[in-house]
Amino acid sequence: MSPRRLSLTCMLVPLIYLVPACTHRQQSAKDGADSATSGQAAAPVALADLRARETVGLGEMPVVAGDGTWRGALLSKSKPTVERSNNDIYQVKANIGASSEMQCTVFSSDLSGGIWLSAVLDGARKSVNMINVEPKGIEVIGNHVGMDVVGTYTAETKTGKAIGEIKIFILSGSDRGFVCFHDELGYTKTFGASARSLAKSFELLHEPWQIEGLEISRAEIDEHPVGFNQHYWVRMPNGVQLAMSRSLITHQSAPGELSTEDEIIIEGLGSDNRVVSAQYQSWVGATEAYKIKLNHQENGRFKYEGAAHGKPLSGEMVTKDRKAIESSVVTEKRIAEALKKKAQSKVKWEEYLPDSDPTRFQTIEATVFPGERRLEARKDKMTSYQWLDDRGTTERMMMNLGRSKLNIVRLVRKGQ
Q: What's the whole-model pTM score?
């Protein structure tokens, strides 16, 4: 973990597979009126039995993009369908032995999983009442990170109130990712196994870069998973080195309300591992918050251009040391040197934090405690407490958020 950062309309969930909350009968909201008029009611089914339903004997079925950009395999009873929609987005549908299909959206590199999660949940709220939705787990899968989200909802039907459940799995990689979901009570293990089969086998057939290092961390608030951070160091075919970061954080303001914040940062590094160009992009829910490009001119002078919260912005700013801003590679080396000292010492650096102020660089001041192998980093009134390895990289970070505590725990680091 870098010690630096302090900070659908095209597809809706088919919310029709519901269980009446009072009678616990399985029924489709779409077909409720037909059952009522015909006088034929479904046999009572225990809610616990519906939740326990699973499918066995599914086969591993290949899925391949029509243009040959990616491939994978998931568990299904029959051959899955793959369709390409606008903006280089693919829709995958698979039969996992339930009444409703498992559906996946494979999105392009310039989008993030939180956008699709927010869009799915926002679309669902138009027709149902979400009573609970929350992340359930975060794990490393190959060079990717996966996150499970489960939502429970009720809906009014012609035969009364019904209860339903949607299971969501998000995979985020250095380039593409996908979101899978299944909207029906039960089949939790079946859905999870099929989604993870796709995650483990998912690969790009033409990698745009070579990954030289990666780091993946889990974000928790009061020991509950809320999101993840990813950092990749990659080499382009022309030899240019990039540092790329992706993050997804969820916020639960009420049991049925889950909002998301996504950020993607791509930095072009010079031979001295300082940032010579960068692009910052962020979304709150499915709405873009900002998209800004940064380019180093000379002697620490940078030009920035883009938009934030719907308003265009552009200008120039200059670093205090008249050099290009440090990448995490440089900062970590300086912290590692401070760890070798006997006494505590200060390490300062400048950083561009457009979510805080897109018009200037901001100074971060860290106090390094070698004996305890930790540091305290301050920006304005914010303080992060970080525990380090001997290379100066952060293994765990903690911040106080009022009565709650945010913890970011490193799950894996390779290379770099």
A: 0.86
